[in-house]
Amino acid sequence: MAGESDAEAREPAAPPSNEREAQLLRLVANGDRQAFRTLYVGYHPRLARFLTRLTRRFDIAEEIINDTLWVVWCKAGEFRGDSQVSTWIMGIAYRRALKTLKRLQSMAPAPDLPLDGMAFATDEPQRTDELHEWLDRALLQLPPEQRLVLELTYYLGHSCAEIAAIMDCPVNTVKTRMFHARRKLRVLLPQLEGTRPGECR
User: Fold this and answer.
1) DSSP-derived secondary structure for 105-144
2) In terms of Cα–Cα distance, which of 112, 196, 115 is closest to 155?
3) Interaxial angle between packed helices 85-105 and 58-75, expressed in degrees from 0 to 180 and rounded to the nearest 10
4) What pLDDT is attached to residue 107?
């Protein structure tokens, strides 16, 4: 019927991703375990990609993910919508990761685990694998704040404004860290090109 068609046409579209996630957070704030499970499943892969690249340790990354999502469970009611839900959650993960990275720096290094699926597609796989390995080793030599800026920008696609919200700092600070990180990488990468795997300290 025409009336029914008009009513269907007036039905609101599905809420955007951020609004849906904000709705889930509101449910989590009321103790809804199913809503929390939905957030957990949605964010675990994204956080795992970010954190395994930072720590190169799956066990440490999993620890940070669990810490991050526990904070989300406990503090969901504090989210006021001043940013994207993803920015808020990544901000929590960033702070947990920074603390963990500083703790790891004071400990004896553990063997790095291979991070499967991180290489770029190419017609020259051997050369690209070498370039990727040089880049990974160069990133590991950057201070955590500078490395995190690059990871958030190039691997997770966040804007400078979003990174500033995640890192709780001015946008200019993000840009300064990006500038210094790029400058250091330009120095480190030519040096690493002349080394073989296992030679870089």
Assistant:
1) HTSPPPPPPP-TT-SPP-S-HHHHHHHHHHHHHHHHTS-H
2) 115
3) 130
4) 60
Within 8 A by CB and 6+ apart from 66, the residues are none
- Torsional class of 109: left (φ above 0), alpha (ψ -120 to 50), beta (otherwise): beta
For the beta carbon of residue 171, count every other beta carbon within 10 angstroms. 14
Average pLDDT over residues 69-83: 91
Distance separating alpha carbons of residues 83 and 62, to the nearest angstrom:
25
Rounded CA-CA distance 116/104 in Å is: 22
Question: Could you tell me which residue, 153 or 119, shows the higher pLDDT?
Answer: 153
Q: What mean pLDDT comes out for the span 66-83? A: 92
User: How crowded is the C-beta side of 35, counted as CA atoms within 13 Å?
Assistant: 16
**Mean pLDDT of all residues belonging to the chain:** 77
Residue range 55-84: mean pLDDT, rounded: 90
Phi, psi of 168 (to 5 degrees): 55, 55
**Average pLDDT of the segment spanning 155-177:** 89
- Sequence-distant (≥ 6) Cβ neighbours of residue 155 within 8 angstroms: 49, 50, 53
Element (H, E) at 145: helix 144-150
Crossing angle of helices 85-105 and 33-55, rounded to 10°: 40
Residue 12 pLDDT level (bands cut at 50, 70, 90): very low
